[in-house]
Design brief:
Immunoglobulin-like; 3 domains; TIM Barrel; seven-stranded antiparallel sheet; alpha/beta
């Protein structure tokens, strides 16, 4: 057996295999690669994907440190019986795949894959043609939206560009198209860079049938669609740091049974589980299928109470309010669009409710978001919750008067948020002893002001000025 490669934990590694040109469509050649962890016996099965010419490739990401060995199986002789190994090096700080802890979104972190809760807050991004082969653009946008604004990552959508990166609509496609490797090159570039920056990418597979942005032309889960699904699974499945929604206005064109079949097929082929979902009908808590990984909703301008009820509807899986919350000049939808103040408060409401994912956009010009006029507002939100949002936090309305509260299961930690006030009445009597408290002005650049130690009793906190405020107690 050749000398084992080495790679850090949570970082994809790729192999290339040469083979003679087949008589059949090379995108339909099936070759599976089985990886096994020597110490634990954990296994991962991935597929090779056609890379052009006479080359196939396959990928692997180590979820555990140590030695992994692999062997391939295929009816194509050149792709069958290949063996090798890789030594995965532990990474104490590396971030892995997106998953969940009950209703909380979570990510695997570190050598042992501990689960770290977070609230996905995505910003609207361009389509793959706009960032294909342009790493500098992605770097600039990471700096703007993730570093300066504090968003979790980006939301990108593909539609018919799966088959031709230049075409959004299926009526411009052939009757039997193959996946376009350029589209995947672009998506992989975005996913890898966002993941390296500590973020997540959210992808919409399809769009709306009235705009010819769906697979209906070839048949949902038909031969063309399955070919694409296998290719997505082989190329993107081993990559950590992404989630996927099936599209929008789904209730008009796809049935729940088809969505369940899609979800099952993808999970069987990706090798590593990813969170897949499908947006339901407008302003209800129904789902087209209960078998998907996250619960997705089209909610128009949800308030705090709506977010709470959304989580309560399906407490075993994370929730995504998957309409795009947009600021649009001369909006045709004033009843559901946002302004910057509503956007800022919406971030806080969705987190204080327990953690519902969202997509945001300031659409000054073009399909992707422009920077917001006050990026420091959003950065303050992100900085406050960094290291404070945890899996055991739950809404505690009895702990606050005139605001919102999250309390840890043991009563030792609290987060409070209130709007347009200069004082806040809180009850931290469940604490076992005095705990330090800090306050942050949510409508300003992030700065913590020490409130000192609070005893386990009721308090009325005088905040000094009328604004929106966030308070953390017992988070030291």
């Amino acid at each position: 057996m050749p000398t084992a490669r080495e790679a850090p934990q949570w970082e994809p590694t790729e192999w290339a295999v040469g083979a003679s040109a087949p008589d059949a469509n090379p995108f339909d050649i099936v070759a599976r690669v089985m990886f096994e962890h020597a110490e634990s016996g954990e296994s991962r099965v991935t597929e090779m994907f056609y890379a052009g010419g006479v080359e196939w490739r396959f990928r692997f990401t180590g979820t555990r440190p140590g030695l992994w060995t692999y062997r391939s199986e295929s009816e194509a002789d050149a792709l069958d019986g290949l063996t090798g190994s890789i030594h995965v090096l532990p990474d104490a700080a590396g971030k892995g795949f997106v998953t969940n802890i009950g209703a909380k979104w979570a990510r695997q972190v570190g050598e042992h894959g501990r689960l770290e809760a977070f609230v996905p807050q995505y910003v609207m991004y361009d389509t793959p043609d706009a960032y294909h082969d342009d790493p500098a653009k992605i770097d600039r946008d990471i700096q703007t939206f993730m570093v300066e604004h504090g968003f979790t990552g980006f939301h990108t959508y593909v539609f018919a560009r799966w088959f031709d990166i230049e075409q959004e609509r299926t009526n411009a496609m052939s009757d039997d198209p193959n996946p376009d490797p350029r589209t995947f090159d672009a998506l992989e570039l975005l996913i890898r860079k966002v993941h390296a920056a500590g973020g997540v990418t959210h992808i919409w597979v399809w769009g709306d049938e009235s705009r010819r942005q769906t697979p209906i032309r070839w048949g949902i889960n038909g031969a063309v669609d399955r070919r694409l699904q296998r290719y997505i699974a082989a190329r993107l499945g081993p990559l950590p740091g992404w989630t996927m929604g099936y599209g929008y206005d789904l209730w008009e064109w796809v049935e729940g049974e088809k969505l369940s079949q899609w979800h099952t097929f993808m999970q069987e082929h990706m090798g590593w589980p990813h969170m897949l979902g499908a947006r339901a009908t407008k302003n209800t808590r129904e789902q087209l299928s209960e078998e998907l990984g996250y619960a997705s909703y089209e909610q128009h301008r949800p308030d705090y109470e709506t977010y709470v009820r959304t989580i309560q509807a399906r407490p075993g899986k994370p929730a995504f309010s998957e309409d795009r919350f947009r600021i649009r000049p001369n909006s045709r939808y004033p009843e559901k669009d946002y302004d910057e103040l509503r956007t800022r408060r919406g971030l806080w409401h969705s987190a204080m409710a327990g953690g519902v994912a969202n997509i945001w956009g300031n659409l000054v010009d073009g399909p992707g978001s422009a920077p917001y006029p006050h990026p420091e507002w959003f950065r303050s939100y992100a900085a406050f919750f960094a290291g404070r949002f945890a899996a055991d936090l739950a809404p505690a309305p009895q702990a606050v008067d005139g605001g919102y509260a999250l309390r840890s299961s043991d009563g030792a930690r609290y987060l409070f948020y209130a709007e347009n006030t200069d004082a806040l009445a809180i009850d931290v009597s469940a604490m076992r002893g005095p705990r330090r408290a800090i306050v942050v002005n949510a409508a300003a650049r992030y700065a913590e002001r020490d409130l000192g130690g609070l005893r386990p009793e009721r308090h009325t906190l005088r905040l000094g000025a009328t604004s929106d405020w966030a308070i953390a107690v017992g988070q030291d």
